[in-house]
Amino acid sequence: MPETSLRGLHILVTGSTDGIGAITAEELARAGAVVYVHGRNADKIERTLASLRGLAANATPPGGAFQADLASLADTAKLAEQVAAKVPQLDVLINNAGIGTRGPREISKDGFELRFAVNYLAPFVLTRNLIASGRGTIPHAVINVSSIGQADLDFDDLMFERDYSSTSAYCRSKLAQILFTLDLAESHPAIKTHALHPGTYLDTNMVRKAGVRPLGPAKDGADAILFVTRHALSDGPNGLYFNRQHTARALPQAYDHAARARLRKASEEFAAPFMR
């Protein structure tokens, strides 16, 4: 089967000024995609744009950039509005931005547990608002960069106020992403929606700051994202979870329709002030 072409596709990559996201943006540009950069820091955004523009002549120049702090759902909702206004046709949304496993319990700008907010609620708001914005911003594919590190959600303590562990909070947020992935694939079958684990302890700032010795290059993660993106744009089943470049199974809670409905209801309530 010939490799699915990405040439000319308009692709937004969140968290694309560093680590796997930055390499993913470069590889997409080399593949001919029109990449839209997202980051929190204006200087890092400019450096990333300059890097993309400085690629080999056969790479496609970036389409533009957006600055938003995904720890703020108001910022996330504004990001969706800006994308809807500036991107004529969004073909693929790659929800890559995230926060890692180490640190104290922190609260987002909206009062949510930070890892749940950044890793899950922000992609939920961004994706749902883009879909609600209109035909041009309804992506053909949504790729959620999750993790093999997963833990069941405690629906009686979604904000993890009891017995907090940053690692467990990260793992819960990553499973929430997968529940959202399968839920979106079911509710919007025309949008190919997949989640993936890009690789274990790849060489990124997030891993190094956690004091962990990297087990592989960050490019392995970018290669996995491009593989799943191409898979999403080809014919095939919807709502899959990948371990790198292979289909896999997430924790059983991801396949529990009642759990997915419960998370959707809670998420809509949490995010109601920021939804279209």
Give a topology summary.
Layout: E1 10-13, H1 19-30, E2 34-39, H2 42-53, E3 64-67, H3 73-86, E4 92-95, H4 114-133, E5 141-145, H5 166-187, E6 192-197, H6 205-209, H7 218-233, E7 241-243, E8 246-248, H8 257-271
Parallel strand pairs: 1-2, 1-4, 2-3, 4-5, 5-6, 6-7
Antiparallel strand pairs: 7-8
Task: Write up what this structure looks like.
It contains eight helices and eight strands, in the order E-H-E-H-E-H-E-H-E-H-E-H-H-E-E-H. The protein has an eight-stranded mixed sheet, with helices on both faces. Strand 1, helix 1 and strand 2 form a beta-alpha-beta unit. With 276 residues, it is of the alpha/beta class.
Pick out its properties.
276 residues; alpha/beta; Rossmann fold; 8 helices; 42% helix
Domains, number? 1
- Which series of helices and strands comes N to C? EHEHEHEHEHEHHEEH
Contiguous low-pLDDT stretches (5 residues minimum) are none
Q: Identify the overall geometry.
A: globular
- What is the third-level CATH name, the topology? Rossmann fold
Structural class: alpha/beta
Rg, Å, rounded:
17 Å
Spatial arrangement of strands, main beta sheet: 3-2-1-4-5-6-7-8
Number of helices in the DSSP assignment: 8
Extended strand count: 8
Which strand-content bin applies to the residues?
A: 5-15%
Mean pLDDT: 94
Classified in CATH, the superfamily is: NAD(P)-binding Rossmann-like Domain
In helices, the fraction of residues equals 40-55%
- Distance between the terminal alpha carbons, to the nearest Å? 40 Å
Biggest sheet overview: 8 strands, mixed
CATH C-level label: Alpha Beta
Judging by the overall fold, what is the CATH architecture?
3-Layer(aba) Sandwich
